[in-house]
Specification:
This protein is of the alpha+beta class. The chain has a three-stranded mixed sheet. 21% of the residues are buried.
């Protein structure tokens, strides 16, 4: 398994977030991004997970709630990749995929788009 330290991996996630077009980045609302080592017990092995209320489903009732959460899982990504370049690509795809969920895009559509 490749070894990418947590701080370096977090920088990859930050870099991937920085590639999101500015108009979309500005539209992101009440969401926090985290890096954790492993996906939660009881889930299949995941590269990332979005938990929250997508922007497309928020209404007048949406106030005073905890931020949505995007989590990128470091060790599953590292176990899946064979080179640093693959890690960079996988992190970028995973970040965009989870941000897509924040915007209300389904898994099926994200896969059609290559994410």
């Amino acid at each position: 398994m490749l070894d990418v330290p947590v701080d370096e991996f977090e920088l990859l996630v930050e870099t991937a977030l920085g590639t999101i077009p500015a108009d979309l980045s500005k539209a992101m609302s009440n969401v926090a991004v985290f890096v954790e080592d492993e996906s939660p017990p009881g889930y299949p092995v995941l590269f990332g997970l979005y938990v929250g209320v997508p922007l497309t489903e928020r209404g007048q009732w949406y106030a005073g709630v905890q931020p949505d959460r995007i989590t990128i899982y470091r060790l599953p990504i590292l176990r899946h990749c064979y080179s640093r370049e693959e890690v960079v690509t996988r992190v970028a795809k995973t970040v965009v995929h989870e941000v897509g969920h924040h915007f209300g895009i389904s898994d099926e559509r994200l896969h059609e788009l290559g994410y």
